[in-house]
Amino acid sequence: MKKFAVRSTSLLLAAGLGLAAATAWSAESLQDVMKRRNLSQQDLLAASKTYVPTGKRDEFVTFSSGGQSGQVIVYGIPSMRILKYIGVFTPEPWQGYGFDENSKAVLKQGRIDGKDITWGDTHHPAISETNGKYDGQFLFINDKANPRLAVIDLRDFETKQIVVNPIYKSEHGGAFVTPNSEYVIEAAQYAAPLENKKFYPLEEFNEKYRGGVTYWKFDRKEGRINPKESFSFELPPYSQDLSDAGKGPSDGWAFTNSFCSERYVGGIEKGRPPYEAGCSAKDTDYLHVMNWKKAAELVKAGKAKVINGHNVIMMETAIKEGILFLVPEPKSPHGVDVTPDGKYMIVSGKLDTHVSVYSFEKIMAAIKAGKFESKDPYGIPVIAMKDALDKQVQLGLGPLHTQYDSKPCLAYTSLYVDSQVAKWNYCEGKVVDKLSVHYNIGHLMTMEGDSVDPKGRYLVALNKLAIDRFVPVGPLHPQNHQLIDISNDKMQLLYDMPLPLGEPHYAVAISADKLKPGVRYKVGTDSRTDKPHPGKALAGEERTVKKGNQVTVYGTLIRSHITPETIEVDVGDEVTIHLTNLERAQDETHGFTVSTYNVHASIEPGKTVTVKFKADKEGVYPYYCTEFCSALHLEMQGYLLVKPKGWKATKTTLAKGSYTEAEYKATVKKVVDTQVIIDSVVAYITSVNYKDFPDVVAMVEDAFDQLGKTKGLKEKHEAFAAKKDWENANLWAEQIWQYQVKTADLGLRAKTYLEQNGAKKVAK
Ligand code: CUK
Ligand code: CUA
Known about the structure:
Radius of gyration: 31 Å
Bound molecules: [4Cu:2S] cluster, dinuclear copper ion
CATH class of the domain at 165-394: Mainly Beta
Strand content: 25-35%
CATH architecture of the domain at 165-394: 7 Propeller
């Protein structure tokens, strides 16, 4: 027990000596370090703006698309420290995502035509909004390659649902939410026939291929998308690109731009120039202007056509009802970003040097007056560019995406070809600053910068190339997210962060204080459905049930046991293991795997998870906890015994160890000494207001839980000692000590927490 005694003394010492100790050993001065590491004043300034000292936390949390990994990357700002990867469209082993039955059920929702798709191309995350402001409750993200959309609950940062778009073959312009997250917008990208598995030759492109925009209905109470109440617009085959929902005065409308409105079909195989030439030939493409509120009413009124079980508002209906219009936009547009006040839509043309600022008011005036310059080949009214534009501003080469500042009228636009961020004023129409980035910026992101209430402060440039920024790691480079300070007139580049997990496209960042994730589940929760798990077991309820060739284990996990510790089955049995983590203390996650059966589960406090496999190979398969959860983590183990057909036992007792009376007495003394320490910790905890600290209350509950398990064991070891069975006497005494160690560990953690968080003495 020395270990604990030493730890508490050193804590006391540290508290007493405080800063004096820290300054005494730091012989090197700031100047010395600057010289040794060749750092400038500017470097130091940048470092001090991003450095988050130990124990302190970031101001903002970023959710970045994980690109081809099919995951989401979570990191803090300004430190740029990665906090989590969230498994979304692809298996993620640490979280057991795709290796336990409960998460497999989520991934299964993402099957297309009955086939598993184990990769995804995530592009655009979106945080749920209330009145146009980020509310920190849910995150949505799309898969461009396979037209899918996922819902992540920010109470536990887990993927809860995947929906497959029923009418597209690819999609890009999602996820974007309406101001109260009524709908999640997802636009198609490469046109294809809407009916499933329909074949039409490319020669019938104009007639049979279609684009579209889907509005997925989000049920906030359920925390799930409701496909039945979702709908789509049928649109011309124009390669619909990004979207944004109107807000404030433009709420109820949404905007989606497009490229390749030439409807060009290449290329060499058809004896024509490639797509890239044909798709950029015209000077303009189309911004689609849609009234989604009215569309939702039309769907309710039964005016949609049902295609593949999904409501589709056909172009004919949309034109007749006056809810769909087009506005020309310059040269291969990419991003469309509505200003925080909802009055303007800013569109960037990749092959234009300008950004185009469209006025919602002007567009509405043209619609009201019935002032259209033409109709497109499908009969959709086209509003003249001059009747819709507020202004155009020349920014530089390859403008892509725009984000907003907390200060009025200020916007930031990425310039892909120039590798720059342009800061400009969209009210006055002038550039105010430019900053070079490394290299070829795609999206950029300011804090809550696409909401009605941007927070300014920082900007992240999501660069496409990293070239010379990092230590080389082979031909495939990491991605580079560069942090930029935008709180002053001049932008300042602060930090380069390599991201080695796919090419992130877009990212969103929210004030950290808006996120309120939990630390434990209600005992027995299936985290993927948020419902009680039918396989839940509490302490004492553990059991193994065999029916025919079905073996079902109802097990529990608590430091440092897996109950049961032996599972015996016959070869060919179907094995289902439900495991409940009975811990209440924060961060006491246990993992679970069985050798060579390709199962893994991450079981956080309170969670119940199921793993399932067919025991198709006779033999001996250790199982163990995969998270280093306690001093005896390595001993958190057990055996799956898969018996061959017709197997009969010949030996029926386990091998014995040899123990002496002296060893037994030493163990008993250890138990008595440890109890003294536990008593002193308990005395401290109960002398202060620990009940005011929910995290401590949970730790104390767990501690007493562990101590409670020692009940009756003293009588047991004493009875064996009386019979001079030193093995059993010693091992049962040792087991008391094991529970004591866990109790003391939790108790000391609670004590440290209380001391560091200003617990106060209470009157007894
Ligand atoms: S996209 Cu990649 S840089 Cu998918 Cu939003 Cu523009
Ligand atoms: Cu539980 Cu390691």
